[in-house]
Here is the input.
Amino acid sequence: DKGNVGFIGIGTMGREMVRNLLVAGHAVRVFDLNEAALADSVKEGATRAKSPADAAQSADIVISMLPDTPHVEANIYGEHGLLKSPPPGKLIVDMSTISPVAVRRIHADLQKAGVSFIDAPVSGGPVGAKNAALSIMAGGDAAAFAQAEPFFRAMGTTITHVGASGAGQTVKLCNQLICGINIQAICEALALGRASGVDLNLLRRVLLGGSAASWMLDKLGPSMIAGEDGAGFRIDLMLKDLRLVQEHAQALNVPLPGTALVTSQYVDARAHGEGSNGNQALFRVYDRMTNQ
Ligand code: NAD
Here is the structure.
């Protein structure tokens, strides 16, 4: 017996996740501010909702996949939000990457209303979302996690309860810090290889066979080398994540000099109009620095 899902935020990631929930046999009511996104999901078998409260109607679980903390807060605390109109299943899961502090506040406010809240950010990009192969890192109460797990299984392959409320976001921020610095390292290697006259596609292939191999080099390397923009994971969203990483680290007095350095390069990319482009556009910061 499959469940009823309310799903809020059907952008780059959400639309793929909704498709996989439908494929797994769940009924999905979708809400997004973007009409075109809604129309696409409805075509694939989802039902259109008019608000978060409407998406929660008869739902066992409501899942959100929104850009940033304020969007998730609006979804919870807004006039037609989930705090006033929780799903009958009393379970809300946010899979966006947002502030762990905000997550714990939402968790506490919903708990008072008898509703469980799980933070369950993901890694794996749009391709991982499309292939139902996301890594899902969840924070919150064990019983609520167990309730959400069958739905996670429709969207991901590595599903881990990492701790109490907010812990999912903390693990995701660690993930993002590595991704950002790794993309920067790849940019530097490509800039050096290019200046030396090495074939960059060959360079990438060799590196993937050795100890410098990484997801970023594999997935983003080709578009970096070709100078292609393609959205995927936007520069703006990575800047949001690097800001969250630094806020979190400052509150705990953990210095992150590498994160600070790469953040300044992402700021540079956005200042040059790259905010809506994919993370591979960080390479153009190196184009400018090397006058390419
Ligand atoms: P996106 O911008 O493509 O999608 C977000 C969707 O939310 C859009 O369709 C937008 O219209 C909708 N939206 C915004 N505000 C809303 C509101 N108040 N109510 C309803 N809908 C609203 O973003 P994305 O790339 O799908 O990323 C979503 C989240 O997942 C972000 O937190 C991001 O950091 C994280 N994430 C993204 C990737 C990736 O590779 N794109 C990977 C892992 C995690």
Q: What stands out?
A: The chain is about 50% helix and 15% strand.
